[in-house]
Design brief:
Order of helices and strands: EEEHHEHEHEHEHEHEEHEEHHEEHEEHEH
Bound molecules: pyridoxal-5'-phosphate
Oligomer: single chain
CATH superfamily of the largest domain: Type I PLP-dependent aspartate aminotransferase-like (Major domain)
Strand content: 15-25%
Largest sheet: 7 strands, mixed
Number of strands: 17
Strand order of the largest sheet: 4-10-9-8-7-5-6
Radius of gyration: 22 Å
Number of domains: 2
Length: 407
């Protein structure tokens, strides 16, 4: 039987505390989620009983630590339905994963006059690495704009594709507006032109279906800390054929096969992309987070989070002078808003005095804020442990803040 979502809050010890004398209402989940006790225990257990460097030792601890690390890789591969375990590369997070591809793909496949397309809805992490790579390679950096609803225009996207396009990089869910982008359709159109697609799944892998094979994603990247896992661990998934074709990113120990002064040959996948000592405890913790998430019925979880978002948006929409940004057909996890005449920063500070944690500012998406002609938003973002009471407290807190600030 699957686990009951309504009891999930009890699994997260941090959520039991008070902040500024109020029970914590944690609504900054797009920045990072809290960790269930099982993940915290896994980290303590690793350093208490198992710590050893992996892959190169033959003593018992080294063998067990290696097995636990590789076990975590298998769990992650299973979670995203990768065809091969070795298509899962552990990185520090989404940012490093995008940089891995921008450097390796750029070096091998992007030349002067080529083009790379990203969307205007990207986090800086899936924007700047491509912009910088294009500058290095003399390629054109093209940006697909979003419309008044905060959605991407597929007809325009198709129009932008041409024989010079080398790669598309797009997120599945915008961290600022919550727009669920039609990545399946984007992949289908790009593949019709033989162009690979990187999907930034940092805000989707924990909320939406996460099957890289049915999506047919060439590359799929995400961060452990946004899906109930530890910080400092993330995933770069690439289809085997691409990982074989790409040069290594970082070089050093572990990623080599033979080294002489004249020549080096590289290790097999996935080790070719994992130079140096990896974050073993982080990977193991991420594996436990995956186990935790998989205890829930995935459809039920998605439905629960969708209903919660709808409820939160309806509560906010009732507040006079409150503006909700974007009106996409599909939105996930994010409630972006401002109140006329009130700075987002001031709203965030006042909510914090009531124990409500939200984020304010640009959310690492300056191109979105520029397009909306605003300096930032207040962003409440959801996780599986949030409930209707959290959103009622948010709405109440916003109304109180308006009273105080407009007095
Ligand atoms: N992409 C998206 C859509 C994000 O929301 C974030 C973080 O907020 C990132 C990339 C960067 O993730 P990280 O800082 O974990 O590398």
């Amino acid at each position: 039987m699957s686990k009951d979502i309504l009891n999930a809050k009890a699994d997260f010890p941090l959520l039991k505390q008070t902040i500024n004398d109020h029970p914590l209402v944690y609504l900054d989940n797009a920045a990072t989620t809290q960790k269930p006790q099982v993940v915290i225990d896994a980290l303590v257990d690793y350093y208490t009983h198992l710590n050893a460097n992996i892959h190169r030792g033959n003593h018992s601890l080294a063998v067990q630590a290696t097995e636990a690390y590789e076990g975590a890789r298998r769990k992650v591969a299973g979670y995203i339905n990768a065809e091969h375990n070795h298509e899962v590369i552990f990185t520090r997070g989404t940012t490093e994963s995008v940089n891995l591809l921008a450097y390796t793909f750029g070096e091998k496949f992007v030349h002067s006059g080529d083009e790379v397309i990203v969307s205007q809805l990207e986090h800086h992490s899936n924007y700047v690495p491509w912009q910088q790579m294009c500058l290095r390679r003399g390629a054109a950096f093209r940006v697909l704009p979003f419309d008044e609803n905060g959605e991407l225009d597929l007809a325009l996207f198709e129009h932008m594709l041409n024989e010079k396009t080398r790669l598309i990089a797009v997120n599945q869910v915008s961290n600022s507006l919550g727009t669920v982008n039609p990545v399946g359709e984007i992949i289908r159109l790009a593949h019709a032109h033989g162009i690979p697609v990187l999907v930034d799944a940092a805000q989707s892998v924990q909320h939406l279906p996460h099957d890289v094979q049915s999506l047919d994603a060439d590359f799929y990247v995400f961060s452990g800390h946004k899906m109930y896992g530890p910080m400092g661990i993330g995933v770069f998934f690439g289809k085997e054929k691409w990982l074989e074709a790409l040069p290594p990113f970082l070089s050093g120990g572990e990623m080599i096969d033979m080294v002489t002064p004249e020549k080096v040959t590289f290790n097999v996948l996935p080790f070719k992309f994992e130079a140096g000592t990896p974050n073993v405890a982080g990977a193991i913790g991420l594996g436990v987070a995956v186990d935790y998430l998989q205890q829930f019925d995935q459809h039920e979880l998605q439905k629960y989070e969708e209903d919660l978002l709808g409820y939160g948006l309806s509560l906010l929409a009732e507040i006079p002078d409150l503006i909700i940004y974007g009106d996409p057909t599909h939105r996930s996890g994010i409630l972006p808003f401002n109140v006329n005449g009130i700075q987002h920063y001031d709203m965030g500070v006042l909510l914090d005095t009531m124990g409500i944690a939200v984020r304010t500012g640009q959310h690492c998406t300056q191109p979105i804020m520029d397009a909306l002609h605003i300096s930032g938003t207040v962003r409440a973002s959801l996780a599986l442990y949030n409930d209707r009471a959290d959103l009622e407290k948010l709405a109440y807190g916003v109304k109180r803040a308006i009273k105080i600030l407009k007095r």
